[in-house]
Specification:
8 strands; 2 domains; 2,3-Dihydroxybiphenyl 1,2-Dioxygenase, domain 1
């Protein structure tokens, strides 16, 4: 291991709409900020670096050669249903789509998971039957509902 400072930052390749994506992410997340930009001589964005919830992301306009895929996603941990709904709505606005189990693809093709912390608590509970009911409920959902997950967890079968 080197003695220097090592960082790992997701580097996301967009066709030509990285600047629009940056603007969207800055508007969806309260503490998001633009950290740096590199522009082409014509003024168009080449590379932008942002911070979202403390996570650095680099976005590049690299052209149509490479596309974002569902094989990579950004997971967003939230506490409340309002956060689930507000963040999901903000990310899918303008052409995105809600997927199964809290996954979604935003209008720029980037996959996200909007996951309430309650889900981790329920799925990790030592009562494996209750955790299984919560997992089955999650698998049947598109956008995650904290109330429905908790109700499934608490349900007793006879």
């Amino acid at each position: 291991m080197s003695a220097g400072h090592v960082t790992v930052t997701p580097f996301l390749w967009f066709d030509a709409n990285a600047e629009e994506a940056i603007e969207r992410y800055l508007s969806v997340f309260d503490d998001a900020e633009l950290l740096s930009e590199q522009r082409h001589p014509d003024g168009s964005l080449f590379i932008g670096e942002i911070s979202v919830q403390g996570q650095r992301l680099t976005l590049m306009n690299g052209g149509p050669r490479v596309c974002l895929t569902d094989a990579f996603s950004l997971a967003v941990g939230v506490e409340t249903q309002q956060e689930v709904d507000t963040i999901s709505d903000g990310l899918i606005a303008g052409g995105g789509r809600q997927g199964r189990c809290g996954w979604l693809v935003d209008a720029f093709g980037l996959s996200w998971q909007v996951v309430p912390t309650a889900l981790h608590r329920l799925l990790g509970d030592p009562d494996r039957e209750a955790a299984g009911r919560a997992q089955a409920a999650m698998m049947a959902m598109d956008r995650l509902s904290i109330r429905d997950l908790e109700e499934a967890f608490a349900a007793r079968t006879n």
